[in-house]
Design a protein that fits this description.
It is a single chain. This protein is an alpha/beta fold. The protein has a single domain, classed as P-loop containing nucleotide triphosphate hydrolases (Rossmann fold), CATH 3.40.50.300. It is built from seven helices and five strands; from the N terminus they run βαββαβαααβαα. The chain has a five-stranded parallel β-sheet with strand order 2-3-1-4-5, with helices on both faces. α3 crosses α5. The protein is globular.
């Protein structure tokens, strides 16, 4: 079974995969196929856990290929904290792509907060719509990561070192707060 960690970014996806590295019956990676196109983009190995915020742009293709046969986690963080983190990264990455490529620079007077808030709301609603007919899902919040990760571990019948995996949540990876 494949597992996809769907998220906006800036919500703990790097840490999630660091914790998953201690699972022995699944492989795991963070944004491992982002540069690929066509069939290769979503050609993950069996029994693989992938966290990639760009999957929210590929949900139709993800559904066609994996449908209800995969397990999906909706990973998110407090809205305002996510906005603040994206504001600190407003000139590159997904924020730059959203502002320049999707909103075509937006309207005069719009702020980084406006762009970040719009991006987060759009991606969150896309994920919720995608998950509405899926039977193997869970919500996972950064604020309750330790409890949620134990539940995730149980739901996917993970093997490995849960204690060491849980310790990963005490480390801030890829942080901009």
């Amino acid at each position: 079974m494949n597992i996809f960690i769907l998220n906006t970014g800036r919500c703990g996806s790097t840490t999630f995969i660091k914790a998953c590295a201690h699972i022995t019956n699944y492989s795991s990676a963070h944004e491992s196929r982002v540069t690929m196109t066509g069939d290769l983009r979503l050609a993950y190995p069996d029994n693989h856990i992938e966290a990639d915020n760009r999957l929210s742009w590929l949900l139709g293709r993800l559904d066609k290929l994996y449908g209800d046969q995969a397990f999906y986690v909706h990973l998110y963080r407090d809205f305002e904290q996510t906005v603040e983190s994206f504001i600190r990264r407003s000139d590159y990455g997904i924020m730059k792509a959203y502002r320049e490529g999707v909103l075509l620079e937006g309207e005069s007077g719009q702020t980084s907060r406006d762009f970040a808030s719009d991006y987060i709301e759009t991606v969150t609603q896309n994920i919720k719509l995608f998950l509405k007919d899926k039977t193997h899902t869970m919500d996972f919040t950064l604020e309750s990561a330790a409890d949620d990760f134990v539940r995730f571990w149980q739901l996917i019948n993970a093997s490995g070192d849960l204690e060491v995996a849980l310790n990963e949540w005490n480390i801030a990876y890829n942080s901009s707060a």
